[in-house]
What we know:
The complex is a heterodimer. By secondary structure, chain A is an all-alpha fold.
Amino acid sequence: xxxxxxxxxxSFFSSLIGYVVIAVFLLIMxxxxxxxxxxxxxxxxxxxxxxxxxxxxxxxxxxxxxxxMRSFSEEIQSGTLEILITKPxxxxxxxxxxxxxxxxxxxxxxxxxxxxxxxxxQLGSPPGNLDSGAVAGxxxxxxxxxxxxxxxxxxxxxLSKNQIVSFLFSVLLCFLFYYGFYFLSKLPLFFGxxxxxxxxxxxxxxxxxxSKGNVDSRNVIYFLSLIAFFLYLTIHWIKxxxx
Amino acid sequence: xxxxVHELVKIYGNQKALDGISFEVSKGQILGFLGPNGAGKxxxxxxxxxxxxxSSGTARICGFDVSEHPVEAKRKIGYLPEHNPLYKDMYxxxxxxxxxxxxxxxxxxxxxxxxxxxxxxGREQNKQIGSLSKGYRxxxxxxxxxxxxxxxxxxxxxxxxxxxxQIQDIRNLIKGFGKEKTLIFSTHIMQEVKALCDRVxxxxxGRIVADDSIETLESMGLDRQIVHVEFAGEVVESIxxxxxxxxxxxxxxxxxxxxYANLKSDLRETIFHTAVQNRWTLLEMSREKSSVEDVFxxxxxxxxx
Lengths: 243, 305
């Protein structure tokens, strides 16, 4: 498993993919937080990191499927998956190795934003006038969110040997699981009756709960089961060679 | 037995790709898989390597059932798929190191150096795989298959798409490995089978139609005879056609004929006597040796109906 992990991670950084992903994410985040007056915190009167945490899920929604789209599609397309599968490792090891490599890349992408936290912390009046608990909760939420998107993206990638199809399918699935259930809960069919339950199926609900700085085991279990579910599906897919 | 295959059946949708294939290969044997495209060679190999699972039947590698103990069986196999897929953006050494780690190869650096020397990749070892020529890529593929020193080597059309010199090089390499390992390879080039194999299995439409040594297969075609004759001047074709066993006579003009026959005794004797009887002057006569090609087309065509 760690060999696959290593191979995938080094392929991110031996090609442009890894650097481009990090650069694009940080550029968008930096611009919205520090430069654009409408969203930037310099013009707002509060020392908070809300612009980062409200925009990050939307950016990750596109960036993570772009990272994961090649992980299986490319190997199916070129036939190298056949070599991997006929080596003495299990399909589970292949899927987990690839998943962890993509999660690591997402984590590496998020780490530099800690600088923003330090800056906002210093800018507060007095310095440190910032809800650090909420920030910590948001970061935990963001990591879970990124991991869930990665699991969905890996699954999307195993569905097709065409990377574009995989990408679009993963974005669709991520969108449905992030915003979709929240919007669905507003349908008159559910509204006022079971809208809470429908919204709870979506990631948005749990991400927002974690952002409040209240790390509830229910939210954590939700994300973990979602990840496990999509990884299981992917392993099943690869095991039965449905591609 | 290194490889034991018992009653393999593979069904795709409503099409039977394999229809009850059984064979055994003992250690150190070189087995050639021969058959027209779509006969089931690749499917059989993919089942042997655990990539596909059979609809029914079993395949064992060194005693391990491929479906029940896949990891143990795969440890014993080196596999080079058709079209030789590679990670083109990796470097040759990096690629081999990755597979050495995946297969838990003991002393990986030493093994990689050995293989690079063996396959003559020395000058290319620090290049990116994508920049190598097809012949060298094939060598990298072979190194990948051999990295963990497997007992059974399975190569799917290892020489397809190479130029004649490269084919010769790869064949020599294969012949070298064949001394220590059990080797199964598929091809549709007959000379290759002749040059390399101890034993040939001919597959057609998912069934084994022949499983024998080259010599036996060649002798199977002996009853079919093709004789080229040249007489001084035209002769009466109907007399030749009337000879026992003669199936067809082709006239090429200026007294030259090709005679196709199917009989046990040598047709040339009969032709000689007939010529003497009819006072024809015989200038030249030669018999085509029946080849594996003949047997191949005979076996794969007759089973069509």
